[in-house]
Amino acid sequence: MKTKLYVDSSNVISKIDDRLYSALVEHLGRSVYDGLYNPNSTKSDEDGFRTDVIEAVKQLGINLIRYPGGNFVSGYNWEDGVGPKEDRPTRLDLAWKSIETNQFGLHEFMKWTEKTGTQPNMAVNLGSRSLDAARNLVEYCNFPGGTYWSDLRIKNGAKKPFNIKTWCLGNEMDGDWQIGHKTAEEYGRLAHETAKVMRLVDPEVDLVVSGSSFREMPTFGTWEETVLEHTYDDVDYLSLHRYYGNQENNLPNYLAQSVDFDEFIEGIIAVCDAVKARKHSKKTLNLALDEWNVWYHSNEQDEQVKPWQEAPHLLEDHYNFEDALLVGSLLISLLKHSDRVKIACLAQLVNVIAPIMTENDEIWLQSIFYPFMQVSKYGRGEALKPLFESPSYDTKDFKEVPYLDSIAVYNKNDGEIVVFAENKSNETMDFSIDLKEIQVENLIEATQFSGYDIKQTNKDQKMQIVKNDKVKLNNHELEAELSPLSWNMFRVKVEQ
Ligand code: AHR
Question: How many domains does the chain have?
């Protein structure tokens, strides 16, 4: 099978925002307790943070951490997580029917972000609470001192303000599973008023308003319209969430879900732009895809979990090779929409639907870790419009879908063109990259992730990205063999 990608460095989609490579950390299952924080682990430092997890987070190149939820935030009192640990209350976490000890809270989170070199993206509770708790939290975090909440932060050990820039106005408020679920009208009004008071405390904050929880919601689209009618001028981003699963065990259709992802993003962009037009606004609203991943392996198992435990084993999906291929393709979708998607959080980061897993004092990296790590490390610079030729296949849900998925990124600073390419077919693919417009110097590296059974997980840590030897670079054309069902990357040095 022959395929070809045309690379034209002048055909730019957008500069890629570093925050495209972000993640969600929620108080859920073993994500925070056991995952980030475990004072009893031999792997933990003086703060009780798992140092092996910190290293893996750095390796993934994560930028922003959305925290503390997720559904959890809609029942959370942030004040429970500050002050001396021995005075913090133990509470029922109604979202996940667990016990929350509050031993990890705001200050611990901020310290952890420092140690991982990440930035906070703080969600406020607009479920069980309202604008007062939100404005107090902004005052606590960002006001220099001399007021009740800012002085309390100083008393609790943080002299300098945290200066948290990015804030989410609640979580999935359209879903009736959400504590304090609201209609679009109710949420739109509340989000508007909350944005107002948060900005009065700190005019510099960036705000993310909650969009639909998923595409199949009956209110999908109309939710966004109504909420944006109230908040268009107040917010900087609209959030979207999307999870996939291969419940039908139909690999070709599963790998085609990237088409759904494209359509989902483009549909929401259309809604934002319709509101913009109606409002005669000059402002273009960008998107925060603040939850995305594969999530389905653990569903049945989660029904057996006893309620009201501390750090229960919840949402512990073990990802296989086909999941890694889908995640690779979803990352290409994010790059294709990098003109409008500025923040994207893989949900989640550790132990809960996560690329990083801990097992007692050991750590293991899931299959999805690898494509994410490569795109996050090398998908920096400008995303170029993907123009390619490929045979396609018929799918149950999406009709014709190309066997090849691919995109090039131009990193001017390093003088590199980086191509990500996925072969979704069972055959070897002859792939060529046409670099006619570009002064090519040499091939830096060509790698592939392939050869595993599609249902194989990485529990035994055998998976690895390896060199692709079947590559030739002739002047302006790179020719390579892509193994069946493979994720690939090519880095070419170009004249700066
Ligand atoms: O990431 C797991 C859950 O998925 C989050 O808590 C919620 O926002 C979404 O439904």
Answer: 2
Catalytic residue among 79, 172, 224, 422: 172
Annotated active-site residue 291? The verdict is: yes
Residue 475 has pLDDT above 90, yes or no: no
- Model-level pTM greater than 0.90? yes
> Of the residues 241, 292, 316, 352, which should be mutated to test ligand 1's pocket, given the most ligand atoms within 8 Å of the CB?
241
Residues 81 and 186 in one domain: yes
Q: What percent of the chain has pLDDT over 70?
A: 100
pLDDT band at 397 (very low <50, low <70, confident <90, very high): very high
Q: Which of 100, 108, 139, 291 is catalytic?
A: 291
- Three-state DSSP class for residue 266: helix
CB 350 within 8 A of CB 36: yes
Cβ(240)–Cβ(288) below 8 Å: yes
Q: Is the CB of 71 under 6 A from ligand 1?
A: yes
Pick from 70, 206, 81: nearest CA to 138: 206
Q: Are residues 359 and 458 in the same domain?
A: no
The answer, yes or no, to whether any atom of ligand 1 lies below 6 A from the CB of 172, is: yes
> How far away, in angstroms, is 295 Cα from ligand 1 center?
10
Helices (H), 94-250: 106-116, 131-142, 148-155, 184-201, 222-231
Final residue belonging to a domain, choices 333, 361, 378: 378
The pLDDT tens digits of the residues spanning 151-199 come to 999 999 999 999 999 999 999 999 999 999 999 999 999 999 999 999 9
User: CATH no. for residue 27?
Assistant: 3.20.20.80
Whether residues 163 and 291 fall in one domain: yes
Decide which of 337, 362, 378 is a domain's last residue. Answer: 378
Contact 56, 356 (CB under 8 A): yes
Active site includes 46?
no
379 pocket-lining for ligand 1 (C-beta < 6 Å): no
Q: Are residues 48 and 24 in the same domain?
A: yes
**Is residue 108 lining ligand 1, measured as CB closer than 6 Å?**
no
pLDDT of residue 437: 80
pLDDT at 266 over 90: yes
**Distance (Å) from CA 135 to ligand 1 centroid:** 24
Is residue 174 in contact with ligand 1, taking CB distance under 6 Å? no
The pLDDT value recorded for residue 399 is 85
Q: Is the CB of 184 under 6 A from ligand 1?
A: no
CB 29 within 8 A of CB 316: yes
pLDDT tens digits, residue range 43-56?
999 999 999 999 99
Amino acid at 483: S
Is a pLDDT exceeding 90 seen at residue 388? yes
HSE value, Cβ hemisphere, 13 Å, CA-based, for 206: 15
354 Cβ contact partners less than 8 Å away, ≥ 6 residues apart: 31, 35, 317, 348, 366
